[in-house]
Amino acid sequence: MFIKKLNEDSIVVPRHGPILAYVDLADYVLMLKTVRDRIRKMIHDGMSLEQVITAKPTAEFDEKYGAGGGPSILIDRAYMSLSR
What we know:
Blueprint (H helix, E strand, L loop, with lengths): L10 E2 L7 E2 H23 L4 H7 L6 H4 L5 H12 L2
Antiparallel strand pairs: 1-2
Helix pairs in contact: 1-4
């Protein structure tokens, strides 16, 4: 994975969004993995997309990462990808 090629002194310059320090990128990756795991379990438990959105698997991250259309877009994309 890309993050393994970085060290704590690395600076990340994305195509979109602000310049990030290593810790910012590491936190973002951890958020994505956490949300992925939650949604994967909900799909395994038979929950529909609407039920997963209502369950708010991103709630603790919404204030920090919820911009750009809100968490339901991330949930929708993750759900569609993981339910294949």
